[in-house]
């Protein structure tokens, strides 16, 4: 059985990008694999160091994991900071992570540009902490969205480097996974770029249907294609990209045909898109309402998950210490 691991930062409510890039695959992979799904609260401190909201955000993501269908009876769900073994592995991996490669990471460069008043070492070493998360359980597959591809490449590099340096075949080289398909990037509704919490262009899993309709209605469009079979501008392509993940092939084909024959009516496209997004989010939103105030259940899931995750983490740390020559007296 293969090991699957992934995490989402506790920086706010989850959106369609998180769902289609990551969370949906978590639920699809849990039956055939040994799964670890965690809430990356340490990672959120790199950009969201606010003690007043951190715990609420962690609780929110935990609730959304369960509402989306991760089953704590078969998957290990835990909070990153409950398994502090990850800090030790992070430190050890940092001894073999170089400033040059860390500072060239796309996500670091982007975040350093955005948060110029706080370009902290946590941001720089974000990929080493992520590698520590993954290698801590020696995962084979990591379901993530397109934006995490480079982090996975770095994880493989750190694993390979460790094995070569110490002359062992210890860490596996994990892959970013989407069932053999290209990793997913869900665009925002504002015409360009990816859907992201900090971009303010999201549709959230707990969002009310009326609000979803409103957001979809406001999405950027134009007066329509100028010639048959023409290329779509990015903001229209984006609507089709979302349609492809929420609707059936027939529906997508119908609107493709309408586009190609210059008969497309954006009002119809948006109505269908909103309807199909709401079909995806409604059952999740309803379960969020059921679970979010059940503190006893959330506590049970988090504590049992932490216990299981710590057991696996402890084993890795003991072995890594041995390999690196950190022996006990
Ligand atoms: P975060 O919280 O930024 O994103 C969580 C997951 O959601 C995916 N995602 C998207 N996928 C498609 N389209 C989008 N618009 C979109 N926006 C977000 C991300 O690719 C990600 O899979 N660094 C991780 C958290 C993490 C982690 C790990 C993941 C920490 N340690 C170890 C896997 C393994 C992240 O980006 O979180």
Automatic annotation (TrEMBL):
The keyword Protein biosynthesis applies. CDD domains: TrpRS_core. GO terms for molecular function: ATP binding; tryptophan-tRNA ligase activity. It is found in: Cytoplasm. A motif ('HIGH' region) lies at residues 10-18. It catalyses: tRNA(Trp) + L-tryptophan + ATP = L-tryptophyl-tRNA(Trp) + AMP + diphosphate + H(+). A motif ('KMSKS' region) lies at residues 194-198. Its main location: cytoplasm. Its EC number is 6.1.1.2. It holds the Pfam family tRNA-synt_1b. Keywords: Aminoacyl-tRNA synthetase, ATP-binding, Cytoplasm, Ligase, Nucleotide-binding, Protein biosynthesis. GO terms for cellular component: cytosol. L-tryptophan binds at residue 133. One of its GO terms (biological process) is tryptophanyl-tRNA aminoacylation. It comes from the Bacteria. Belongs to the class-I aminoacyl-tRNA synthetase family. Catalyzes the attachment of tryptophan to tRNA(Trp). Homodimer. This is Tryptophan--tRNA ligase. It comes from Dysgonomonas gadei ATCC BAA-286. The lineage of its organism: Bacteria, Pseudomonadati, Bacteroidota, Bacteroidia, Bacteroidales. The gene is trpS.
């Amino acid at each position: 059985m293969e090991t699957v691991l992934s995490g989402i930062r506790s920086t706010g409510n989850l959106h369609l990008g998180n769902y289609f890039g990551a969370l949906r695959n978590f639920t699809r992979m849990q039956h055939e694999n040994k799964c670890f799904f965690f809430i990356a609260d340490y990672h959120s401190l790199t950009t969201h160091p606010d003690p007043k909201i951190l715990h609420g955000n962690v609780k929110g993501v935990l609730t959304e994991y369960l509402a989306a269908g991760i089953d704590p009876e078969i998957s290990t769900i835990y909070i990153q900071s409950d398994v502090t073994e990850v800090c030790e592995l992070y430190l050890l991996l940092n001894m073999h992570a170089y400033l040059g490669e860390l500072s060239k990471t796309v996500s670091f460069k982007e975040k350093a540009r955005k948060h110029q008043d706080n370009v902290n070492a946590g941001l720089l070493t974000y990929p080493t902490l992520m590698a520590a998360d993954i290698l801590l359980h020696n995962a084979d597959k990591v379901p993530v969205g397109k934006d995490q591809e480079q982090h996975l490449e770095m994880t493989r590099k750190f694993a390979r480097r460790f094995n070569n340096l110490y002359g062992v075949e210890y860490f596996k080289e994990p892959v970013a996974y989407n069932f053999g398909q290209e990793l997913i990037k869900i665009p925002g509704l504002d015409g360009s770029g990816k859907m992201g919490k900090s971009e303010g262009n999201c549709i959230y899993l707990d969002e009310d249907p009326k609000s979803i309709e409103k957001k979809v209605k406001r999405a950027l469009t134009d007066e329509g294609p100028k010639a048959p079979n023409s290329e779509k501008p990015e903001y229209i392509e984006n609507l089709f990209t979302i349609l492809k993940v929420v609707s059936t092939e027939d529906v997508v084909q119908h609107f493709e045909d309408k586009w190609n024959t210059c008969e497309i009516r954006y009002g119809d496209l948006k109505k269908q898109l909103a309807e199909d997004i709401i079909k995806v989010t409604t059952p999740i939103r309803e379960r969020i309402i059921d679970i979010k105030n059940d503190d006893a259940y959330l506590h049970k899931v988090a504590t049992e998950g932490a216990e299981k995750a710590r057991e696996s983490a402890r084993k890795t740390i003991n072995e890594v210490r041995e390999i690196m020559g950190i022996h006990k007296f």
